[in-house]
Amino acid sequence: MAEITAAAVKQLRETSGAGMMDCKKALTETGGDMEAAVDWLRAKGLATASKKSSRTAAEGLVGVVVNGTTGAAVEVNSETDFVAKNAQFQNFVTTVTGIALTTGDDIAALAASPFGNGESVAEVLTNNIATIGENQTLRRARRLSVSQGAVVAYVHNAAATGLGKIGVLVALESAAPAEALEALGKQLAMHVAAAFPLALDESGIPADVIARERAIGIEKAAESGKPAEVIAKIVDGAVAKFVKENALLNQLFVMDGKTKIADVVAAAGKAAGAEIKLVDYVRFQLGEGIEKAESDFAAEVAAAAGV
Description:
The radius of gyration is 22 Å and the shape is flat. Helix 2 packs across helix 3 and helix 9 packs across helix 10. It has twelve helices and seven strands. The C terminus is likely disordered. The protein has a four-stranded antiparallel β-sheet. Strands 4-6-7 form a three-stranded antiparallel β-sheet, covered by helices on one side. The relative contact order is 0.13. By secondary structure, it is α+β, with helices and mostly antiparallel strands. Strand 1 and strand 2 form a beta hairpin. The longest helix has 19 residues.
């Protein structure tokens, strides 16, 4: 049986919001598997349905940029937050994000692209690692484009122009005036940053995510002791609610808490005198989905000193 450490219990408690003893029991029941322990707590009704991918577990920067009707978002990771404040690192992320306007989502193509100084992006990254003295990774990139309309960018708590820990792009297809699209796009991007949709519409929610929610619902409902046919209806309802709440077009606008995003877009189009379609979005949060091991700084110092 895996050893359940105090650090693991603390991490699960911070992640789930559950009590310390419940966290310890969850880890014991799941053999120390952190993700499975969160699901165990949720199934027992002891934790909120938190989106684990929203947990920031790595440092660095997310960059976003728009040129005409095309936008790009890039994430570059580092070991510590100090590097994110480094001008050399910030310049690198800004330049690479601009290059992604051409290379798109292909990280290999982005890494092989000319940086503009006679070296490739990958070569400059290697040099940065050597000069800054900390490992860095070119993690992911996305590009959005519309034939007519606007791609609008938003950075939450920007560290510099176009750089921060959460970067969003919203693509609007429309013949509406640029000012109207920019205003709507900024509001929608702020909503995306806050609400963390999993897909544009219900059809885009990943099948494995739905299957996981169904499994949690089945385990939770099974404890009610109700007949199987009743449990099936309860689970179907819970899954349908989950899908609806996590599809962007179905979400309630964070600005008023009552209007669906699809209706917000329709109303904006009517006001602008031209139909507006929200065709895609990107939301990059720094480190989402990456687990970073916690270290005991005092112990490291003692070890280095030979204590």
